[in-house]
Amino acid sequence: MLCSSKRCLAPFAQRKTLWHDGPMNSFDPSTVKKIGVFTSGGDAPGMNAAVRSVVRTAIHKDLEVVGIYQGYRGFLEGNFQNLSARSVANIIQRGGTILKTDRCPEFHKPEVRAKSAQLLKQEGIDAIVCIGGDGSFTGAHLLNNEQGIPMVGIPGTIDNDIAGSEYTIGFDTAINTAVEAVDRIRDTAHSHDRLFIVEVMGRNSGFLAAEVGVAVGAEVVFTPEFPMTVDQAVQHFQNSVARGKRSSIFVSAEGQKAGRSYDLAENIRKKCGAEARVCILGHIQRGGSPSATDRVMASRMGNVAVETLLQGQCNHFIAVENNKLVTQPLEYPANNKKTFDPRLIELATTLAT
Ligand code: ADP
Ligand code: F6P
């Protein structure tokens, strides 16, 4: 169980920081009358629940709320809309993000960030909640430090690859979506005595693949963090055939290039003659109604994000550490890689005997 926001919100000075103190980690919270909220990077199920929580917590605290649309593109185009409690009605169960999202390379330029800050100030936005991944947090950190706009982050990505947090919004839903899909594949794999390679998302990270691999009883799990050679995979496959297995599921993280499983299948065919079928789950994993876990996490994180700003803390994101909500510096994920625990991969292999 995660602790409630009230219990975990120790005064800022008492909390640990994993990185150095940046130029602006705290500010006078009495200046905050209107906050902005936006979603950025890849969408993740549960982002809407986080937006709802931010909006309604802020209104509960007598703040005005502005939605910034389409990620950082909305900053540079001034795409702002006032949000009321009713604006976020009937969204807790919806996937995607009502605020839209984008990847906006222009935001890498300091002059673009400076121009965006002017628009934000014209709109009277005093502080902002950013819902996204580590790239989005880097943009938020730069805006915070260069332009003095207090920023707080909420981690949202199906990859669960943000260093400093054990959990990111969307991960639980994506696992369940992938597991449901692989269960269907297993039916046909079993009927035809076939080997399937199922590719799950995860840009340079195997957190999703590892959990899905254990949950579906995969024989082999390929991840960028714990590489397995084709020879090793073929060995596992041949051993399982020798033990009497007629069908197998390999789960593979997409890594840097979606579709790499086709190369893997071809290499396996060349090594041992097995004709693997490939199924790339792709963006199916990013959509759909968020799980109860993601809705609850998003609701809690949105609430704590607003409370954090109202305590005068900024330049941090809400993170999960030892099952509790804490704050971590926004720039921490950009400078650190999340530790990958290979025991899940070993467990999948052990249990696939
Ligand atoms: P995620 O937030 O899911 O990691 P991206 O890495 O695509 O997704 O980042 C989302 C957006 O954040 C980018 O399109 C860009 O607008 C902004 N961003 C990412 N990295 C930086 C950076 N180094 N400087 C400024 N803005 C950045
Ligand atoms: O960051 C989340 C993620 O879904 C990754 O797993 C994936 O590699 C990437 O986004 C795909 O991004 P896009 O939707 O821009 O192709």
Task: Tell me what the structure shows.
The chain has 353 residues and is of the alpha/beta class. The protein folds into two domains: 5-169 and 290-335, Rossmann fold; 171-286, 3-Layer(aba) Sandwich (Rossmann fold). The chain has helices at 5-8, 47-60, 71-77, 110-123, 134-147, 171-192, 207-216, 230-242, 260-272, 292-310, 332-335, 343-351; strands spanning 34-39, 64-68, 80-83, 127-132, 151-155, 195-200, 220-222, 248-253, 277-280, 316-321, 324-329. The chain has a seven-stranded mixed sheet with strand order 3-2-1-4-5-10-11, with helices on both faces. The protein has a four-stranded parallel sheet with strand order 7-8-6-9, with helices on both faces. Helix 6 (171-192) crosses helix 7 (207-216) and helix 7 packs parallel to helix 12. The longest helix has 22 residues, at 171-192. It is elongated. The structure holds adenosine-5'-diphosphate and 6-O-phosphono-beta-D-fructofuranose (F6P). Residues 42, 133, 157-159, 201-203, 254, 286 line the site of 6-O-phosphono-beta-D-fructofuranose (F6P).
